[in-house]
Design brief:
With 231 residues, the protein is mainly alpha-helical. It has nine helices and two strands; from the N terminus they run E-H-H-H-H-H-H-H-H-E-H. The protein has a two-stranded parallel ribbon.
Length: 231
Amino acid sequence: MKQKTFYTELAYALGIFFIAFGTALMEKADFGMSMVVAPAYVLYLKLSSLWDFVTFGMMEYTLQAVILLLMMLMLRRFRLCYLFSFVTAVIYGFTLDGCMLLTGLIGAPGIALRILLFLLGAVFCSLGVALMFRTYLAPEAYELFVKEGARRFKVEISRFKTGYDCVSCLIGILLSFLFFGFGVFKGVQYGTVFCALFNGWLIGRIGKMLDSCFSFRDALQLRPLFEDTAP
């Protein structure tokens, strides 16, 4: 069976949208966020209660800017692809805020609808990540930090990713305790555990389905701008 062509630039755009929309659905479900976005979400909950102009998307790209700075200090270098990663974070942040407005149109959901929204959100996020894995365009700072950190310290990327997720989860819990009181879990709940257990598996399954149906190819000659050939 001949595979259909799926352009990597389209995968990038759809990947950002699906991750943002899935995150907004999970926020609406209120079962907890993924470990990676939990710190930004807790900061958003706290700061938006103080200043109306603060949005979830704003906290996402602000925190990712901090992560990029920490990564450059750790690696002691700067590359153009790092700047592109921040551009991706900003695009994602604005897309997330738009999706939050859309999900805000949904009334207060009952438990059945909350479960459905969470599961759909998890699937959309996994689909988005799987698409982002199939494009050469710069990923968000979260994924870039894992990639560069694993290479810098010569650690298997899956192990480094696991450690990164655990640290993010711990930071989210500590921020929740700091802002809302000890024992109060904001952003880190049962859904966070679900994401920790099944996100990797779900991303892998969706990725295999995409590869079986499509051949991913570049429509534009921009790959050399984003490729990092550093050892």
